[in-house]
C-alpha cells in the first residue's frame, strides 16, 4: 500500500510524507482534524490539511516558543497560552517550577480531546493542576484581561481560517493590555520564504511593533514546516530578548532540551538580510 | 501540462517542484545532468537527480560557504575551490579585491559548460582572469600541493557517487598539507535531520577533527535542500570562526549580501543540542 500525505507549500512546491495509516479524520465545529501514523515522522496532526505537529520534530517548535521567553525573564509566573491544543507548549512551560498558573484558551475542544487520546507525547501536561483550560475564542478571551499575565504565547494556526483574528491590530493591542509591566508576547510568525504569507506576516510584524516598544523576530529550523525556516515574534514592554538574557541563570535551572540552548537563543535573533528587508520594507 | 521534479529526501519524505520545462538532460562521463525552468524557483540544476542549485535560493548556500571564512580572515589571497561547477562559489569569492588567485578543480567539465550556458547567474565569474580552472579529480589534485593556499572550499556533491572521496580521512589530511599556517578549510556538510546521511557526516566531522586543531560546524536555512537545515564544516590551523571575527572590518568592505551578515555569522555556529549530540556521540 502506498499512502502519502501531501502539503502544498505553494501551488508549485509540495512536501509529501509516506503514511502508514490514518488514525483519525473528524470534522469539528471549526476545522477538519486528521491524525496519521508514519514511520519517518511518527504521529502527525493536520488541521484543514495543514501540518501542525509531527512526533519527530515538534520538540523544535515547542522549545523555541517557550524557552526563549522563559530564559529572557526567569521570574515568569502567570502565563496565557492561546491555541496550542496539542499540549506541547504547556508541556514545556510546566518544566518551570516558577510558573504557578497557566490559562490555556483553545477554540476547538476536539483538538484537545483527540490530542489527549492520540498524541500523549505533547498532551501529557494538560491535566496538571496548574493548567486551566478554556474552550473559547482567544481573540474574545483576551479582551477582558488587564495587567494579568507575565507572558502570552500565541500558538496559532495560519493567518486564515479559525486563527485569522490572532494576527490583527486589535488582538495585539488587547494582548498589550492583558500583560503586566514586565509582560512578554511570543507568537508563531510563519515563514517569509514563499510569497504566499510574506505580505500578511510583514503586516503582522508592523502591527506588533505599533503596539509594543520592543518587537523582534527570531527563527528556528523546523523541517516539516513550509521552507523549514520558521519565524517567531518576540514583543515586550521591557525585556530585550538578547540583552537581558542571563545564560548562566537559565543553565542553572538544569532543564534539558533537545533543540534550545542559550547560545542558540542569541543566534536565533540573527536573521538573514533578505528576511529583515522583507519585514521592514515599506 | 503538469510536470513535477521530485526528490526523495528519504524513502518516506519527498519534495516536489512544479516544472515549466526541461532545458537540458545529458549524461556526462561522471553523472547525469539536468536543468529545469520553474516559476517558483527559477532555473534548477540537478546531478544524478539530486537538487544542487536553484536560482531562488542559491544565494544562501553561496553566501555561507564563502563569506564565513572570508570574514574570519580578511587577508585570504589564494583560494582552492573543489567542485562548485555551477560557479556560484567563485562568483562570491571574486567580490573580494584581496583575493588574487583562485584555483577551481571540478571533475566534470560538462557541468561548467552547461552552467555557463544555462545558469549565467552563478557562472558569470568563471571567465575572470583570477580564476584558473582544472577539470580533474579534486582528491588527486590536492595530493601534490603543500602550504599553498589560505583557504580551501569543498563545494562537493553528496557523500556518494563522484563526490565520495571528498569525505575521506586521506582527503582531509591532504587539505591540511595543502594549506599554509593560516589555512582554513570549509566544506558542505549535509544535514543531520534524516538518518540517511547522519552517520557518514558524523564520521566526516570526526575525520576533520582528527586532522585540524580547530573544527566547528555551522548551519544555514536552505529551503530546497533536504530538511532545509544545512550544515557546513569550518576547520582551521589557527583561526576561530567566532572569536577571530572582526565584524567591523568585514562590514567596512561594503559587500552587500542577501543572506549573510556578521551577527548571523556568529549565530550560525550556535547549533541545536540534538545536532551537537549526534556529531559528538560515540
Automatic annotation (TrEMBL), chains A, B:
CDD domains: AdoMet_MTases (cd02440). Spermidine binds at residues 62, 86, 155-158. Pathway: Amine and polyamine biosynthesis; spermidine biosynthesis; spermidine from putrescine: step 1/1. One of its GO terms (biological process) is spermidine biosynthetic process. The active site is at 155 (proton acceptor). GO terms for cellular component: cytosol. One of its GO terms (molecular function) is spermidine synthase activity. Gene3D superfamilies: Spermidine synthase, tetramerisation domain (2.30.140.10), Vaccinia Virus protein VP39 (3.40.50.150). Residues 2-237 form the PABS domain. It catalyses: S-adenosyl 3-(methylsulfanyl)propylamine + putrescine = S-methyl-5'-thioadenosine + spermidine + H(+). Its EC number is 2.5.1.16. S-methyl-5'-thioadenosine binds at residues 31, 106, 137-138, 162. Transmembrane segments: none annotated. Homodimer or homotetramer. PANTHER family: SPERMIDINE SYNTHASE, SPERMIDINE/SPERMINE SYNTHASE. This is Polyamine aminopropyltransferase. The lineage of its organism: Bacteria, Bacillati, Bacillota, Clostridia, Lachnospirales.
Amino acid at each position: 500500500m502506498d499512502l502519502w500525505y501531501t502539503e502544498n507549500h505553494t501551488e508549485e512546491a509540495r512536501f509529501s510524507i509516506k503514511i502508514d495509516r490514518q488514525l483519525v479524520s473528524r470534522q469539528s465545529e471549526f476545522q477538519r482534524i486528521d491524525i496519521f501514523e508514519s514511520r519517518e515522522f511518527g504521529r502527525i496532526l493536520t488541521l484543514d490539511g495543514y501540518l501542525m505537529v509531527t512526533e519527530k520534530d515538534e520538540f523544535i517548535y515547542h522549545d523555541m516558543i517557550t524557552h526563549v521567553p522563559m530564559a529572557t525573564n526567569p521570574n515568569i509566573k502567570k502565563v496565557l497560552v492561546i491555541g496550542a491544543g496539542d499540549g506541547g507548549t504547556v508541556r514545556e512551560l510546566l518544566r518551570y517550577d516558577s510558573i504557578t498558573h497557566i490559562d490555556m484558551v483553545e477554540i476547538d475542544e476536539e483538538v484537545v480531546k483527540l490530542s489527549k487520546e492520540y498524541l500523549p507525547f505533547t498532551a501529557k501536561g494538560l491535566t496538571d493542576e496548574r493548567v486551566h483550560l478554556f474552550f473559547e475564542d482567544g481573540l474574545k478571551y483576551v479582551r477582558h484581561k488587564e495587567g494579568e499575565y507575565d507572558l502570552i504565547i500565541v500558538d496559532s494556526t495560519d493567518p486564515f481560517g479559525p486563527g485569522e483574528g490572532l494576527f490583527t491590530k486589535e488582538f495585539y493591542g488587547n494582548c498589550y493590555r492583558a500583560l503586566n509591566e514586565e509582560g512578554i508576547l511570543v507568537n508563531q510568525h510563519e515563514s517569509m520564504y514563499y510569497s504566499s504569507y510574506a505580505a500578511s506576516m510583514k503586516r503582522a510584524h508592523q502591527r506588533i511593533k505599533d503596539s509594543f516598544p520592543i518587537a523582534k523576530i527570531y527563527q528556528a529550523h523546523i523541517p516539516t514546516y513550509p521552507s523549514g525556516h520558521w519565524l517567531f515574534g518576540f514583543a515586550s514592554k521591557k525585556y530585550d530578548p538578547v540583552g537581558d538574557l542571563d545564560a548562566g541563570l537559565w543553565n542553572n535551572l538544569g532543564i534539558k532540551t533537545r533543540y534550545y540552548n542559550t547560545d542558540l537563543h542569541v543566534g536565533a535573533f540573527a536573521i538573514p538580510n533578505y528576511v529583515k528587508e522583507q519585514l521592514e520594507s515599506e
